[in-house]
Design goal:
The structure is a single chain. This protein has six helices and four strands. By secondary structure, it is of the alpha+beta class. It folds into two domains: about 160 residues, 2-Layer Sandwich (60s Ribosomal Protein L30, Chain: A), CATH 3.30.1330.60; about 170 residues, subunit c (vma5p) of the yeast v-atpase, domain 2 (Up-down Bundle), CATH 1.20.1460. It has a four-stranded mixed β-sheet with strand order 1-4-2-3. The chain is elongated, with a radius of gyration of 31 Å. It starts with about 90 loop residues before the first helix and ends with a strand.
Amino acid sequence: MALLRINVTILSAALLISGCSYGGDSLWPSLSGDEEESPGELSGIEPDMAPPVAYAPPPPPGAYAPPPPPPLGTTNFQLAQTPPSGQPTGTFVGGKIVQMRNDLINLDRAIGIHNAELQRIRGLTAQHSQAYHGLVAAIQSRLQVGTTPGNPILTQQWNESQTLIELLGNDIAQMNSLSNRATADAALVGFLLESSRAAYGLSGAIEEDHRQLSILEDSVNKTVVLIDRLLNELSEDIQRQTEYVSRERKSLNVLSLSVKNGELYGGNIQNRAFQTAIEDGTSISSPGSTSAVIGTPSNRRPLVVIRFDRDDVDYQQALYTAVSRTLERNPTAAFDLIAVTPAGGSPAQSALNSSAARRSAEKVLRALSDMGLPAERVTLSAMTSGDTQSNEVRIYMR
């Protein structure tokens, strides 16, 4: 495996966050034609920060474990008894009471059907989550002890994990459909409650009619409370499951990169930053698409230096470790990714070096994206430097 010399340090402050640039020369700003100080001679690092080291060590075994699936609600939404019936009074109001009681019975039956459907979906979701986490744990265990790049067994397990995530997404769709049907029935129950209250004002009623109306109103109120609880708990299940599936889709992308390279990186970088922000009580705001001027990074030490002085440079693990540690310290950090070419040489050689360095920088950018770092947190640019003998990609924290 090719030797990778990477300088890693964590800076103490983050500056403005800007959008990401891709592609052509117009999107590759040149920082400076002047020679840049060597990374080892740069100043401005606080003494209590981690010093640069020759290699970024991989995370220790067991350092990353997928978060457990969110808990599902456990309430069984079933009425204890049907609305009590009363003797027909033969009045107009008495006829309305019989009609409303039958409507309430039908609505209670519908809620029972909704409850059975909800319990069925919850059971499927629990099965799919358990199977998914079993596969992910098996893949990570194999990667932690080491395996071959693109191991077909792990690839098959990853494909099965992807299928299970899709099934979990389908479970959420079923919950949404159930929520829509329950919401429609909740509207009918609300209308029935208003109708039972309005019936007190109808003329031609006797005392028995008002007694039965009072009993009916109490029964309708119980149904209102029950369906409201069902909708609230269902809404919480949908929200938690949606966030969970979205997070795991991103983590699967990182896991796919781990399987491809035969080594475990850890969780999705953005998820790690989000979790750190929660633990610290801070918030993460989107950098948006601001276009701050980068400026020459002569007063900054690079977070990572990847020297492409040979083929097949193995940099992904160290890159992941450096960026994830930075985000643990500063969840809102953004990064400048700079393609550096040696100064001097013939114009033709300089053009070839510049093109190769830019291709390498785009490859590193794709790796960061696969690891879960949002594209809007990275800017891409190019420069020449007299302190390097080979093409480099340098990553700075802003």
